[in-house]
Amino acid sequence: MNRKSLEDISLKLVKIVQTRDPDKVRYWVTILERQKDPMVTVNLFILVRRHLQRMDAELDRWFEEIYCENLQPEVRDMWLNFAQLCSLSL
Questions:
Q1: Whole-number Å distance between alpha carbons of 86 and 6
Q2: Tell me, what's the pLDDT at 90?
Q3: Which residues, 6 or more positions from 81, have their beta carbon under 8 angstroms from its beta carbon?
Q4: Is the Cα dihedral 6, 47, 86, 42 positive or negative?
Q5: For residue range 6-56, what is the model confidence (pLDDT) as tens digits?
Q6: pLDDT at 73 over 80
Q7: What is the band of 1 on the pLDDT scale with cuts at 50, 70, 90?
Q8: Are 30 and 66 in contact (CB under 8 A)?
């Protein structure tokens, strides 16, 4: 998927996160996790977080909590570290 498409999708996901509707966000997190290319998921996660960090730090933390709520703490830390490393190339 090209950068422009990822950027467009991430902006749509940010609008969903801004609703602060946990059920809608969980639904889209589930959809993201089902992607055939796991790097699409990582890249979208990174882009959404970048937008949220610029807009509202608390909303970014809320999204992270919803996104990682079903992960074990050590898996959560590994996922967030992996996403941070991948963000260097984005």
A1: 15
A2: 74
A3: none
A4: negative
A5: 999 999 999 999 999 999 999 999 998 898 899 999 999 999 999 999 999
A6: yes
A7: confident
A8: no
Query: Rounded to two decimals, what is the model's pTM?
Result: 0.90
Tokens of 26: 């969980």
d(CA 15, CA 74): 29
The whole-angstrom distance between residue 38's C-alpha and the CA centroid of its chain comes to 12
What is the number of alpha carbons within 13 Å of residue 89 lying toward its C-beta?
A: 7
Q: What is the 3-state secondary structure (H, E, C) of the chain?
A: CCHHHHHHHHHHHHHHHHCCCHHHHHHHHHHHHCCCCHHHHHHHHHHHHHHHHHHCHHHHHHHHHHHHCCCCHHHHHHHHHHHHHHHCCC
